[in-house]
TrEMBL record:
This is Maleylpyruvate isomerase family mycothiol-dependent enzyme. GO terms for molecular function: isomerase activity. Keywords: Isomerase. Residues 22-155 form the Mycothiol-dependent maleylpyruvate isomerase metal-binding domain. Gene3D superfamilies: 3.30.1050.40.
Amino acid sequence: MCAARRKSRAYHPDRVRDALLAQVEHVRLAAHALTPEQLARPAALPGRDVHALLAHIAGQIDAVPRLLAQPAPAATRPALDLDDWAAHPGAGVGDAPEAAGDPVEAIDAAAEELDAVLETAVREDLLLPHRFGPMRGLDFTVTRVVELVVHSDDLTRSLQSPVRLDRGALAIAVRVLADALAAKAPGNSTELRVPPFVAVQCLPGPRHTRGTPPSVVEADPITWLRLATGRATWAQTTATGRLKASGERALGLAGQLPVLG
């Protein structure tokens, strides 16, 4: 799947490690503060309550040690990069089974297992046997940052009280999803801006080389996360002013959302 295309963004292993550990800790602390009534509350995700959402989060954290414990793939190079992962239908959903039993205890256990293996997981020369194809350990760990940030925001929406987002983790998630959009709709006619973290060009059309591009779409990081993952729609976010779009080609981005498969 890694055909010739634009150069992938590089993520520093230390920053990925620190961001994932920080976001896991924020989720863990939030989970411990929940009451039985809050655990039974319907989640912002259809068909789930907060208990089930936490069980899903525990499974996503545990996916790193789980894949590391499996036999290494026979391949010598990755078949899957971050853009490929984001584009796959069901990306993230099947990376690990939901934890059984008490989800708060499961998150604690998964966090402990993750901490023990994370230095290995962020290696760039290590291949993991992902279900979509061999994937670099560092890249798969980046996907866990994306999952943790997105689901932390799901908890915020479910509980109507904020779950803290690590700034480094939020920056990684925003950039991965913006790059996935640029890979899905390549071109230079429209610029997506998510200050202060990223700006990418996408959609075919006239190329601009200096100054303000003819079409611009701008959103804050949380709005972009929700748009890119299908948690919010173009119409909702433009109506509230959280998404600003200008130029004749800007509306073309609406048809490319969400970007996470």
